[in-house]
Amino acid sequence: MADVTTSGEALLFLTDEQLRKGIEAMFFAYRGFTADPDRILADLEYGRAHHRALHFINRSQGTTVNNLLAVLGVTKQSLNRVLRTLIADGLVESRVGRKDRRERHLYLTARGAELERQLSEAQRARMRAAYRAAGPQAVAGFRQVLEAMMDETMRAQYHALKDGKS
Amino acid sequence: MADVTTSGEALLFLTDEQLRKGIEAMFFAYRGFTADPDRILADLEYGRAHHRALHFINRSQGTTVNNLLAVLGVTKQSLNRVLRTLIADGLVESRVGRKDRRERHLYLTARGAELERQLSEAQRARMRAAYRAAGPQAVAGFRQVLEAMMDETMRAQYHALKDGKS
DNA sequence: CAGTTTAAGTCAGCGTTGTTGACTTTCCAA
DNA sequence: TTGGAAAGTCAACAACGCTGACTTAAACTG
Predict the structure, then answer these.
(1) Nearest residue to A36 (alpha-carbon basis) of B23, B79, B15
(2) A125 contacts A39 by C-beta, under 8 angstroms
(3) In sequence order, what are the residues at sequence separation of 6 or more whose Cβ sits closer than 8 angstroms to the Cβ of residue A6?
(4) Domains of chain B listed by start with CATH number
(5) Which residue is nearest to nucleotide C12 (CA to C1')?
(6) Interface predicted TM-score of the whole assembly (ipTM), two decimals
(7) Between residues A43 and B19, which one has the greater pLDDT?
(8) How far apart are the C-alpha atoms of B79 and A49, rounded to whole Å?
(9) Which uninterrupted H or E stretch holds B114?
């Protein structure tokens, strides 16, 4: 990696104007990022919170409610409302823990997995197009900046998920 | 810039696993992105919507409600509620248009500008730290990918704002 | 084994911020 | 001059965050 971080250039780069551009880029891009799944969800009377739950349950099948709470960063009351509808609608299954019977382990049903796939494919399609348009080097930079922007606890979650393959 | 976009590497890069990492990076990073202003706003009994309104009014002083609607991508009823409280609290001033008296032109008051500065400085500080940590080359890639991820209409807004230096 | 802690879930209630529908005021063009 | 379109406002509703108080069940601990 050619390092062009001379202090002169680096300082020049961090004008308030440059930072504002980055802030607005995040704002507009995040809208695009959520737009496609949102359209699918609207028809099903679900919201973004349902998508997030499906995503992370799929990501870590058998995760507990408590784990999910930590990843999503919401209160259990808030998550519970979402989880209850997903279970009632037969998209998520909740199994009592074998070792610790207080815990509930969460799994996607076949239908839940199908919806998750549909939602994430819409999101991946956009991400794929953006990656193709920007090129691999840009993607590496994109990921570096995003990671640097996370809170420490979120970065831990991010890396924890990175490895756990199934 | 050393270009490593050979078609083999580019294809290798776009596995579903790589795309999922990008999706989760966006999710976690956006939380960090909004965390600092959110803390300030919570004390003031304002929300993220107020922050966005202040940001874009500051960005384009004298803009109309309709312009703001297009940039923010919400309904006018939704924006109106936020605007009403900001006006009532003396942070925003609404002036009847001189040419077209149906229009309202929006300006920040001194107090409004002060809050906007406080909020955006918190956000800029995080962005600045992330930029410093990742380096100028990564920042360029970050901006490229974000821009490619926007909807076409949002990209137009993004570029329109880019130039207009108050 | 009694007492405490932990995991999960429920109920009630509230705030922000999206939505749609109905309305007024203002402008402009047929 | 009248009728439609545009700008903005008001009312009501839904999604989804939040806090607080509580229950149930299981696990741990002294």
Answers:
(1) B23
(2) no
(3) none
(4) 19-163 (1.10.10.10)
(5) A77
(6) 0.89
(7) B19
(8) 23
(9) helix B110-134
